[in-house]
Amino acid sequence: MPGHFEPLPGGGAAVALDDVEISIIRSLAVQLLELIGPGPAEDAPADPLAELFAEGPSEPPADPVLKRLFPDAYSDPEAAPGPQEAEEQKAHSAEFRRYTENDLRAGKRDNALAVIHSLDALTPVDEAGAVLKLSHEESQQWLGALNDLRLAIGSRLEIADEDDTELLYRLPDEDPRKPMVMAYLWLGGLQETLVSTLLP
């Protein structure tokens, strides 16, 4: 089980994590929360109807990581639309973003918080670390958070495709990006094994 998720009888997944791994994942999840931003103010009145019709931003985020986490719905980076088609895509994307981004942010925030809470609830087995056991629902939240963390790190590393990932394996140890690359690859391994536990 060390370093990868394994299925639990009856559903869910488990992974053995040492103290350093727990600290890294928790720190990255906290950073992701800070990047996504706070949710609605806690002292705001809870009005489900108002929340349903609350409008989000219509412009894409300026931060490249947030752009990767919340991409435009109607844009194709491969295509070269004409001016009129580009304007239409921009208008459709703005409309879609206005009504979906708040919910997307809330979902990503919930996933990151679920990771933090499950790590905080761990009881160390010994000095080496602990075994994290997740229900099926928690596994889904972890999967979402791991995906978001990899997208965020990949954006900072300017990874656009599989060729870029291959280059990461050949980075010299003295490259300042090396720790971030190691985290990116390690999270990818966790994500892959967690996906396999969720398959029927």
Keywords:
single chain, 200 residues, mainly alpha, three-stranded antiparallel beta sheet, 3 strands, 7% strand, globular
Overview of the structural elements:
The protein is mainly α. It is 58% helix and 7% strand. The protein contains seven helices and three strands; from the N terminus they run ββααααβααα. The protein has helices at residues 19-36, 48-53, 64-69, 83-120, 136-156, 162-168, 178-198, and strands at 6-7, 13-18, 129-134. Strands 1-2-3 form a three-stranded antiparallel sheet. β1 (6-7) and β2 (13-18) form a beta hairpin. The longest helix has 38 residues, at 83-120. The two termini are 20 Å apart.
**Strands, count:** 3
Evaluate the radius of gyration: 19 Å
Q: Strand share of the residues? A: 5-15%
Helix content: 55-70%
Count of individual helical segments: 7
Low-confidence stretches: none
Biggest sheet character: 3 strands, antiparallel
- In round numbers, the mean pLDDT is 84
N-to-C series of helices and strands: EEHHHHEHHH
Overall geometric form? globular
Quick structural overview:
This protein is mainly alpha-helical.
Topology:
Elements: E1 6-7, E2 13-18, H1 19-36, H2 48-53, H3 64-69, H4 83-120, E3 129-134, H5 136-156, H6 162-168, H7 178-198
Antiparallel strand pairs: 1-2, 2-3
